[in-house]
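Chapter summary example.
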Amino acid sequence: MENSSTLEDKKKPVILCIDDEFIILKSLSYLLKKEFGKEYDIESFNDSESALNFIKDCNLNQIEIPLIFCDQVMPVMRGDEFLEIVHRIIPNTRKIMLTGLASAELIGNALNKANLYRYIAKPWQNNDIILTTKEALRSFYADKTLEEKNKELEKSFFYNSDTNLANWEKLQQRFEEYATKGLTLTLAILKIENYAY
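The structure predicted for these 197 residues follows.
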């Protein structure tokens, strides 16, 4: 594990690198720090268990991890297995697999179960890593913006803008949800015309 800062120190989103080969991990971290270090913290781990603990801590502390680079061939846990677990914790994170030995089956497994963003063969070209990182980050933030806009749109449709309370459309939606579960609801409507003090 190379990370030296604590989670309390972190203000920037994190790009995470996992590889059991020290030289490869060091060179990837250096390249990413040089290109993206002003906007992102670059964290690196040489084992999947430490990386998973770090991801869980970031998730608890609401520290964003938009991108993960992961080697496929590692001791204890293969890269595709690791990325599948990561996908359950932070599904929107872009995941890039680095390896020279992965079979089509293992890459397919990562694509299907971990939503693999891209596979890059070792040895890589530095320019390819930089361009892929830029595109992965752009994609992550574009999806995040779209998700936020969709939530705003849903809120404007289902909630009263003055009171912030659920409106008639939201009430109907809840009735439909209960009906699909075979549950019955009773609705009582009170009309208050004036208040007596």
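To summarize the output: The chain has a mean pLDDT of 84.
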